Amino acid sequence: MEKYLTDLFEGQSYEPGNFFLIAGPCVVENELTPFMIAEKVSGICKRLGIPYIFKASYRKANRTSGNSFTGIGDEKALEVIRRIGNDLSLPTTTDIHTAEEAAMAAGYVDVLQIPAFLCRQTDLLTAAAKTGKIVNVKKGQFVNGPSMKFAVEKINAAGNHRVGLIERGNTFGYQDLVVDYRNITWMKAIGVPVIMDCTHSLQQPNQTAGVTGGNPELIETIAKAAIATGADGLFIETHPEPAKAKSDGANMLQLDLLEPLLEKLLKLRKAV
Question: Distance from the CA of 17 to the CA of which of 68, 156, 206, 234 falls in 20 to 30 A?
């Protein structure tokens, strides 16, 4: 594991060689649900020896419909994320959308995430890099794995070498995504940790109803294949009642299903 990740997980007891997990709700939809999810996932990860980063978006800026839920307020949501990190002794991450947001979000979280649609935005990557935080960049749905070296180079050029890449499938404009697992191998060759986004890769975007669809029944399939092909970490959005979630409920994992899934994945990790 990269030293900066080892430092990030300092204080957590985990089994060397295990994949790490980034998990939480899609968005901070209130003050209570994120805490409940973080406590549940943290307990599971402690029992299984999996390093854990809590994830939640403080604001959803990339919604299909203007009527979709975006958040409870930026500072209020970021404060919720910070309290979760402090109270549960967990590293935290959230996504940012503009260069101006980088410094603000960096004051609350340990890892900044760059959304897939914005992976080529030089000003955004540079601003995130200059905060000194770990920067995880989602591979755009419109690019291949090898081309992500340029995103890494932009962040390195700004003086930051604490970078990770996230695979989340490719789209061809027809309301679906396809995962090409060659991208995991190609991005690992760049020399950075590679994370598989097991939930967003199952999105069915741009539906005529204005709400993104999904195939959550295939989360286990995506996760198993990612572990088998060498992913360093997994990204899983989860919620106790996905049907009632205010964002991306159609592709989130039901919280009760997380522990048995992780148990299977640990066995697979040891086998490969």
Answer: 156
Burial of 136 (0-12, 13-18, 19+ CB in 10 A): buried
Q: What span, in angstroms and rounded, lies between the C-alpha atoms of 23 and 27?
A: 11
Q: What are the sequence ranges of the domains in the chain?
A: 3-7+19-271
Which residues lie below 8 Å from residue 134, measured CB to CB, with a gap of 6+? 4, 5, 8, 110, 111, 112, 162, 163, 164
CA distance 228 to 231: 8
**Whole-Å CA distances, 271 to 7, 44, 46:** 27, 21, 21
CA 122/CA 108 separation, integer angstroms: 23
Residues 6+ apart with CB under 8 A from 174: none
For the chain, 272 residues long, give each residue's pLDDT as a single digit of tens.
899 999 999 999 999 999 999 999 999 999 999 999 999 999 999 999 999 999 999 998 775 556 677 789 999 999 999 999 999 999 999 999 999 999 999 999 999 999 999 999 999 999 999 999 999 999 999 999 999 999 999 999 999 999 999 999 998 766 788 999 999 999 999 999 999 999 999 876 654 454 455 677 899 999 999 999 999 999 999 999 998 988 777 789 999 999 999 999 999 999 98
Q: 3-7+19-271 maps to which CATH number?
A: 3.20.20.70
